[in-house]
Write a structure and sequence with these properties.
Layout lengths: L9 H11 L8 E6 L2 H15 L5 E5 L5 H4 L10 H7 L8 E2 L6 E4 L9 H4 L3 H12 L2 E7 L5 H6 L3 E5 L12 E5 L10 H8 L8 H39 L1
Parallel strand pairs: 1-5, 1-6, 2-4, 2-5, 6-7
Antiparallel strand pairs: 3-4
Length: 246
């Protein structure tokens, strides 16, 4: 599946997720839904990254090998949700910590990436949601708006974050906790990116003294030109007066 997201850059969708995260602080299990699963995945990551600053956050792929999530798992053929729900693999073994992100984990779709209706309707989701609530952790699932059994899944969770779509036709009675109509229009540059850019500055140390020297030369030339102009103005009238006296 292509990682191209329609209607905005991935980082802008992720930033939109960060912006809605504060209204989700009292919930423990939600599902991010969209007809554009890639946009939903980036929004889910933004939400989870924000929440991971103060509680363990897990993002689960209910679409199937979503690149934004799968790329964060370094295992070649990782176990995931299908392996747990269909073959009994422990949930503790399908959560992969995201490198460089404390408290953030990803549950991939699994060795069989097809998330079918049986999994969506599983009563285990209710127990899983309760377990996250008791542990003070946060579960963020990503699903397509057209997935069979979606309404049953939603019933077992706290609610929905709806991305791009104005309505959720497959589950019209679902509790929509937040709506993300589009990506953020403006982005603040995080400090760690400024620091990363600064690491390249020493390679161009010669540039700044050279610019300073050039500025001094330019200013000095302008000053000399002005001084010569003033001297010329003071000398010329004197010469005309001497000629008249002679």
């Amino acid at each position: 599946m292509s990682q191209k997201v329609s209607g905005g850059r991935p980082i802008a969708w992720e930033d939109a997720g960060r912006q809605v995260a504060p209204v989700l602080g009292s919930y423990s299990a939600i599902v991010v839904i969209s007809s554009d699963p890639l946009a939903a995945a980036y929004v889910a990551l933004g939400i989870a990254r924000a929440e991971a600053t103060h509680r363990r956050s897990v993002v689960g792929d209910l679409v199937g090998d979503l690149p934004p999530l799968r790329s964060l798992v370094k295992e070649e053929d990782p176990h995931g949700i299908t392996d747990s729900f269909l073959y009994g693999v422990s949930l503790n073994k399908i959560g992969y910590e995201v490198e460089g992100a404390h408290n953030l984990y990803v549950m991939p779709s699994g060795t069989d990436p097809l998330i079918d209706e049986e999994i969506m309707r599983s009563p285990r989701w209710k127990k899983l949601a309760s377990g996250f609530a008791e542990a003070g952790a946060f579960l963020v699932l990503v699903a397509s708006s057209g997935a069979p059994g979606l309404s049953d899944l939603i019933e077992e969770l706290d609610g929905v974050v709806l991305v791009k779509d104005p309505e959720l036709q497959n589950a019209p009675s679902a509790l929509v906790l937040a709506r993300v109509a589009g990506p953020t229009r403006t982005l603040k540059i995080p400090l760690h990116r400024i620091a990363a850019g600064a690491s390249h500055w020493p390679r161009r140390k010669w540039l700044y003294p050279a610019l300073a020297a050039l500025a001094v030369l330019v200013l000095g030339g302008l000053g000399l030109a002005l001084m010569l102009g003033r001297v010329g103005q003071s000398v010329q009238p004197g010469r005309r007066v001497a000629a008249k006296i002679a």
